[in-house]
TrEMBL record:
This is Amino acid/amide ABC transporter ATP-binding protein 2 (HAAT family). SMART domains: AAA. It comes from the Bacteria. Keywords: Amino-acid transport, ATP-binding, Nucleotide-binding, Transport. Signal peptide: none annotated. Pfam families: ABC_tran. Residues 7-236 form the ABC transporter domain. InterPro entries: AAA+_ATPase, ABC_transporter-like_ATP-bd, ABC_transporter-like_CS, BCAA_Transport_ATP-bd_LivF, P-loop_NTPase. GO terms for biological process: L-amino acid transport. Belongs to the ABC transporter superfamily.
Length: 236
């Protein structure tokens, strides 16, 4: 059966000042899916996430979230609808403790924030480090805290920008299990990943970007037949 579309993007264009970066992106994410956006450095993956969230200089086209048009809404209205972005640079407060980081994010979405007890169950490592400073955490713990913080906003649609970047394989596995658990709980996830192996174990569908456009889209069952193409376009 065809699940409802959570996100439907048509002809999305985005600019940073005079730089025209996205040239008409078409992409959709069904409710409860994990969708991975692939592409080489500079293809426009991060810009796509930022354009959905409303944090690029200028954007045009259509971004419908649960049928609601976001293209003219400011970031705070978009966040309130339950959309969140976990940026590549892992936005946590280095000078605050883990616990403070978890209690600081406002429960912006009407859908209701995830309880801290649920957060501790999802990220047992964080529970053990509640009074540690954010800046004292390992890269993997910082990534987990960054994801935990967006869950505390009550978002149900999560955009994760390269969550595995620079992390050890064992930590990457943990993050993978967390993403799979969030999917089981009904979260919808749009993932940007350079780590193709990691992405391929999690995603229901893939979109491939080149020069600010989507050049291919396929389901995980079609992955095998795409390997030649992906090797050419991404070098995987
Ligand atoms: P990466 O994996 O390197 O993050 P990406 O696919 O996410 O790659 P983007 O970060 O979206 O790519 O960058 C797309 C293009 O936009 C690049 O050419 C980049 O130099 C440019 N760009 C990114 N941020 C800005 C900015 N703030 N101002 C101007 N140009 C930018």
């Amino acid at each position: 059966g065809a699940a409802r579309l959570a996100l439907e993007i048509r002809g999305l264009q985005a600019w940073y000042n005079e730089s025209h970066i996205l040239h008409g992106v078409d992409l959709d994410v069904r409710e409860g899916e994990v969708v991975t956006l692939l592409g080489r450095n500079g293809a426009g993956k991060t810009t796509t996430l930022k354009a959905i969230m409303g944090i690029v200089g200028k954007r045009s086209g259509s971004v419908a979230f649960n049928g609601r048009e976001l293209i003219n809404l400011p970031i705070e209205r978009i966040a309130r609808l339950g959309v969140a972005l976990c940026p590549e640079e892992r936005a946590i407060f280095a000078s605050l403790t883990v616990k403070e980081n978890l209690f600081l994010p406002p429960a912006v979405a009407k859908t209701g924030a995830m309880s801290v007890d649920r957060i501790y169950a999802l990220f047992p490592n964080l529970r053990e480090r509640l009074s540690s400073g954010g800046g004292k955490l390992s890269g993997g713990e910082q990534q987990m805290l960054a994801i935990a913080r967006i869950l505390r906003t009550g978002a149900r649609f999560l955009m994760l920008d390269e969550p595995t970047e620079g992390l050890a394989p064992v930590i990457i596995q943990q993050i993978g299990r967390t993403i799979a658990e969030l999917k089981r709980e009904g979260f919808t996830i749009l993932l940007v990943e350079q780590n193709f192996r990691f992405a391929s174990t999690l995603a229901d569908r893939f979109f491939v970007m080149e020069h600010g456009r989507i050049v291919d889209a396929f389901a995980s069952v079609e992955l095998e037949g795409r390997m030649g193409f992906l090797h050419e376009t991404l070098g995987v």
